[in-house]
Amino acid sequence: MARRRRLKTLPDASRDLIRELPVEVKDRILECLPTRDAARTALLSRNWNHVWLQHERLTFDYEFVQSVQKQCQDDDGRTFVNIINSILFSRAGPVRKFTIQIDTKYDPSPQQSDFDKWCLFLSRNGVEELNISLYSYQTHQLPFCLLSCRTIKKLIVEGLFIDLPVNACGIFSNVTSLAFLNVTFGVNGIASSISTPKLEKLAFEYCGGINMFEISPPKLEILSVIGSVVDLRWLTPHLKAIKTLWLCGSSLEDMDVSQFPTAINLRVLKLYRLRFGYGDQLPVFIQLLQKFPNLCELQIMATEDDNELNDEAFEDPNGLLFIQELQMLNTIKIEAFSNQSVMEMLFMKTLLSKSPALEKVVIVKSWGSNASEVVRKIQRKLECFPHASPNAQIVCAGNYYAGMDEDWMDTHGVRFLDFAVW
User: Fold this and answer.
1) Over 80: is that where the pLDDT of 362 sits?
2) Which of 42-46, 205-209, 292-296, 398-402 reaches the highest mean pLDDT?
3) d(CA 94, CA 128)
4) Confidence bin at 73 (pLDDT 50/70/90)
5) Rounded average pLDDT over 17-35
6) Is 115 exposed, middle or buried (0-12, 13-18, 19+ CB in 10 A)?
């Protein structure tokens, strides 16, 4: 009887359980693999080949480029462009998410004609999320077919130039998230007025010609302008509706805050690379806070000033940091806190005394000083300052790399334009 039972189960033991998995499960497995390894599954069987050809996510990132570089060197007939062509144009279904990151230090860059073909194919095959990063000796232009593509919802562009058509209809019509890094707009010198009815998140980092990118997004909630020169007249209309604003310290240097409207809807303010003791950055920032009466959360990534000395007085005899009460502010987070700047400590003293609703203060010490005694010293100083809120809890940490939350690390530490964390 026992032998008969073993013989009966032999067919079940020899079944290919992986091959019999549902198509949805196989597709999820391919999502977890690098594109190069996902493509290799097509060699397993006709069943896996079908799943691969139907796979909707393609990623040609730096890791992919490096992995195929040797293959291209060993085979003179194959190039990186040919490999992308063979994978992309063999699709048997839509490509919902597409990522390409090319740097000429790894591989010769594609020609504009190659790039145009890829973009045209994507625009006709249902692409919804697009991440394009091209750094090469020749500057690539984002084709019009992507500007006017109605299926795109999230778009990240890096290292290209964009020549927007003047008063064209249907540009970014269904996009909800837009991010630009090292992008130059309006090379023809003519400003473009664009209606973006569904846009909710907009980010610029080290871009040129932002003033040529004139939009009217009625649903915009998050705006980020980092390392880019922007005209205040361009920025002002967007401040009326947005809920989150990201700026950098350098943008404060020539800012006339008196021209700012009162942004009653703003809840979160994030400031990147603020130099507390440099020029007028901090006084201007204090003035700017007065324009956000309903501000709830303040995050600052600071930059150390080596030429400043600590001062136990922490007084402001000239009233540079005079501020009215921030009635709604409940959370403050400062990364790279140096503990060596008079203005830095004076700023904290001012905020603590003017924030009656404050609940949480997170101070993360700058890199290089992880000693627990230094951290405790900072906390003791802050706790000695007058507090307008009896519920304010102060938390100090040692290393700002370890202390950053995932959102701040992804957006400012590792890669700024990462919409996955927005």
Assistant:
1) yes
2) 292-296
3) 10
4) low
5) 62
6) buried
The rounded distance, in Å, linking the Cα atoms of 205 and 247 is 10
Question: Between β-strands 154-158 and 177-181, what pairing exists: parallel, antiparallel or unpaired?
Answer: parallel
Q: How far apart are CA 43 and CA 26, in angstroms?
A: 14
Q: How many CB atoms lie within 10 A of CB 231?
A: 9
CA angle, residues 327, 332, 334, in degrees to nearest 5 = 150
The set of residues, in sequence order, having a beta carbon less than 8 Å from that of 392 and lying 6+ positions away, is 352, 355, 358, 359, 360, 361
Q: Buried b vs exposed e over 240-265: b needs ≥16 C-beta within 10 Å?
A: ebbbbbbbbbbbbeebebeebeebee
Query: In this predicted structure, what is the pLDDT of residue 322?
Result: 73
Nearest to 173 by CA among 198, 142, 210, 204: 198
pLDDT (tens digit per residue) in 84-130: 898 889 888 889 999 998 876 555 678 899 999 999 999 999 999 99
CA count, 13 A, side-chain hemisphere, 182: 12
Strand runs (DSSP E) across 31-162, as ranges?
57-60, 97-103, 129-135, 154-158, 161-162
Encoding tokens for residue 235? Answer: 């920025």
